[in-house]
Amino acid sequence: MPTLYLMRHAKSDWHSTAQSDFERPLNVRGGKDAIRMGQWFEAQGLRPQVLLASPAQRARQTMLAVVDILGVKEDEVVFNKDLYLAGRSTLVNVLRAVPGSAESVLLVAHNPGMDELVEWLALEPPPLSESGKLMTTAAIAIFSLSSEWASLKPGSASLQQLVRPRELS
Length: 169
Hints:
Elements: E1 3-8, H1 28-44, E2 50-53, H2 57-70, E3 77-79, H3 88-96, E4 104-109, H4 113-121, E5 140-145, E6 157-163
Parallel strand pairs: 1-4, 2-3, 2-4
Antiparallel strand pairs: 1-5, 5-6
Helix pairs in contact: 1-2, 3-4
């Protein structure tokens, strides 16, 4: 069955001189966390087959940090404008459109949509962080799906792992 990696973008810089929310970049910690999570993917031997991300600067930088470490070319990433600040229903629709032949997908997007999607997919309530949050910045939720991409429905996936940068040693 397919594997889904849901990753929230890393911490952004609220004090940047970006002209808009869309253009807001990662801050220093966010840059380090994105690299750290890319290194985690590499250490686990994980190389998602389909790469989808919001084109917002902070999500773009997060995805590019990960794929750079994995040795994947930027042109293999699909930056889908529908993923910018997408809610659960939009995220589900994007995932349902993934080709049935795809064995694994990495999706990088934003909250609150990512929290909503994790809770919607999970067979059991996912664990919260020490601060009571679900998808902290740069967190990765790893799901094993019980059906094809086109058949995603509530509770149709088993949360295998939820990895947060602060919880890595």
